[in-house]
Design goal:
By secondary structure, this protein is mainly α. It has one domain. Helices cover 74% and strands 0% of the residues. The protein is built from 11 helices and no strands. It has helices at 2-36, 46-56, 65-85, 90-109, 114-145, 150-153, 160-163, 165-178, 206-231, 238-259, 265-291. The longest helix has 35 residues, at 2-36.
C-alpha cells in the first residue's frame, strides 16, 4: 500500500513540476536569445505571465473540435513524460508521444484556416523527419542494455553514450525539431510575420493557446529526458552529469536557433534522414562488430 502511495505521489510531483521546469527553461530561452540579439529581454518568468494572461482571455473559436484534440495531445504528452521519468518502457513512451503529436496535427486540420492546414502538413513532415531517429535511439539503447525500460538502461555500469556516441549526435541533431527551433521550425513559426503567419496555431487563442504552450513545456522536458538517459548510469554522481548534459544541449539548441535561418521542408527531411541513417547505421554496425570480440 505504501509503495502504491509513493508511486502516486511521484506521478503527481512529475505532473506538477515538469511544466514549472519547462516554463522556466522557456523563459531562460527568451532571455538568452535576447542577449544574443543585443536586447535586454523579458523576465525569466514571462512565459508564466503569458499563460496566465491567455487563460484570462475571452474564448473565440471557429469550432470546438480542435479544442478536443489539443487537450488530448496534452494528456498524451503528460503520459509520455510520466512514463519516461518513472523509468517505464521507452518504446511505449515513443508510441504514445507519436499519438500525442498526431492529435495536435488533427487539431490544426480541424480549423478552416489555410495557414493552420499548411502548418499541420508541415508538422507531419517534421514527424516524418525525426521519428526514425527516435526509434533508432530506442533500438540502440535496447541493443546496449538488453531492455527498453529506462530504469534498466540507466542502471548499467557505464553510460549508454559510450556505446552509442553517433546515435547520440543524431538525436541532438533532431532535437532541434522537437524543441521547435530554427532551422527546423517549419509548422509553428516563432513570429507571425512569416509566410504561414503562425502556422498550425493560427486559429488558436486564449485558453487553447495556453494549453499548447504548456504542452510544449512538457515536450521540452520529454526531449531533454532522452539526453539524460544517454548520460546517466549506476553511479549516483552520473545523474548530476546527466542534468548538466541536458542543460548544455538546451543552450546549444538556443544558439543554433539564433544562428540559423529556416530551411525548406525538403532540406529538413533529407538532412534528418541522412544524419539518422548514416550515424545510426554506422554506430550499430560498429557496436555489433565489437560485441563479437
Amino acid at each position: 500500500m505504501n509503495d502504491i502511495l509513493i508511486k502516486i505521489l511521484k506521478i503527481i510531483g512529475i505532473v506538477v513540476i515538469s511544466p514549472l521546469v519547462g516554463g522556466f527553461l522557456s523563459g531562460l530561452d527568451r532571455k538568452i536569445s535576447a542577449r544574443l540579439q543585443g536586447r535586454k529581454g523579458p523576465s525569466i518568468l514571462q512565459p508564466f505571465y503569458d499563460v496566465r494572461k491567455l487563460l484570462q482571455k475571452e474564448q473565440i473559436r471557429v469550432n470546438s473540435a480542435y479544442r478536443f484534440y489539443v487537450y488530448l495531445s496534452l494528456l498524451f504528452i503528460i503520459f509520455t513524460v510520466v512514463l519516461i521519468i518513472m523509468g517505464g518502457d521507452l518504446l511505449l513512451a515513443i508510441f504514445v508521444l507519436t499519438i500525442g503529436s498526431l492529435m495536435f496535427v488533427l487539431g490544426g486540420y480541424a480549423s478552416s484556416s489555410p495557414y493552420s492546414n499548411i502548418g499541420s502538413e508541415r508538422e507531419l513532415l517534421q514527424m516524418m523527419a525525426y521519428e526514425p531517429c527516435v526509434l533508432l535511439v530506442a533500438i540502440g539503447l535496447y541493443y546496449q542494455s538488453g531492455s527498453f525500460f529506462v530504469k534498466d538502461i540507466i542502471a548499467q555500469d557505464k553510460p549508454a553514450i559510450i556505446y552509442l556516441p553517433a546515435i547520440f549526435l543524431a538525436f541532438v541533431y533532431i532535437l532541434t525539431f522537437k524543441l521547435r527551433k530554427s532551422p527546423f521550425d517549419l509548422s509553428m513559426s516563432h513570429h507571425g510575420h512569416q509566410e504561414i503567419v503562425k502556422g498550425i496555431t493560427t486559429e488558436f487563442s486564449g485558453e487553447d493557446l495556453a494549453i499548447i504552450e504548456i504542452t510544449h513545456w512538457y515536450e521540452t522536458i520529454m526531449a531533454l529526458s532522452f539526453v539524460y538517459i544517454f548520460v546517466a548510469f549506476s553511479s549516483p554522481i552520473s545523474h548530476l552529469y546527466a542534468v548538466l548534459a541536458c542543460f548544455a544541449a538546451f543552450i546549444l539548441e538556443i544558439i543554433i536557433d539564433n544562428a540559423c535561418a529556416r530551411v525548406t521542408w525538403k532540406t529538413a527531411l533529407s538532412s534528418a534522414w541522412g544524419v539518422t541513417f548514416f550515424f545510426g547505421a554506422a554506430n550499430l554496425i560498429v557496436l555489433s562488430l565489437l560485441s563479437k570480440f
